[in-house]
Amino acid sequence: MRFNNHELWRASSNLWAASTMSLMVQWSGVLIAGALVSSSEVAYLTAAQRTAMLTSFVLMVVNMVVAPRYTLLWKENKITEIQRLAKWSTHGMVVLVLPIIALMLVFPDLIMGLFGDEFVVAGNLLAIMAVGQFINVATGSVGFLLNMSGHERDFRRVTMFAGPLTIILSYFFIVQWGVTGAAIATAVGLSLQNIGALFMVRKRLGFWPIG
Q: Taking Cα atoms as reference points, which of 57, 81, 37, 64 lies closest to residue 181?
């Protein structure tokens, strides 16, 4: 299949915008917290976020494996096989991640205490962000499903909603609840981004990559 410069520019610009908005979802809470709360609280928030993001390592590894398959199957118009692969990979990720998430929810203080006794107070931040990361994994490789099937614009639209919303929520939640508000805003933004992409997969590809 041949692409002209216009198609390449359109796809790359959509992916660039989507990547930028995704970074806003992940880091706007920390950046805004840096301007509004103490440096020690920002340290707690950053440590909790990095720890919760360990769960997304499974998603990253699976994406590296399945993304090329999605492209090949889409080119061959094998939607049923794409659906089968998407559901299989999502189920596998949930099975792998669920025990880790359970530990983060049941023993968040103990886990954060590994960074030092003063980090025990950040246990609630870890629990909140772990929920957001679980939704990130449990919805499957929705971003790659859209991008690898030529629906970069749809993924961009989803992130263009989630990114600015996370920034707005981060500011107001931090003013109201401090770093706890930053954790909530990040979890909400990440969840909405993935749920929005999930519905877009259903709309464009005709199936749910979960269940």
A: 37
- Distance in angstroms (rounded) separating the CA atoms of residues 207 and 50: 32
Q: Give me the number of domains the chain comprises.
A: 1
Asked if residue 13 belongs to a domain, the reply is no
Burial class of 143 by CB neighbour count within 10 A (0 to 12, 13 to 18, 19+):
buried
- Which pTM value belongs to this model? 0.91
What is the C-alpha separation between 208 and 202, in angstroms, rounded? 5
121 backbone dihedrals φ, ψ, rounded to 5°:
-65, -15
Domain that holds residue 66: 24-205
Per-residue pLDDT reduced to its tens digit, 168-185: 999 999 999 999 999 999
pLDDT tens digits, one per residue of 52-74: 999 888 888 888 888 889 989 99
Q: Does 19 reside within a domain?
A: no
Is 14 a member of any domain?
Answer: no
As given in the structure block, the two tokens for residue 67 are: 């993304």
Q: Does residue 92 sit within a domain?
A: yes
Nearest to 33 by CA among 174, 169, 197, 139: 174
> Would you call 204 exposed, middle or buried from its count of C-beta atoms within 10 A (0-12, 13-18, 19+)?
middle
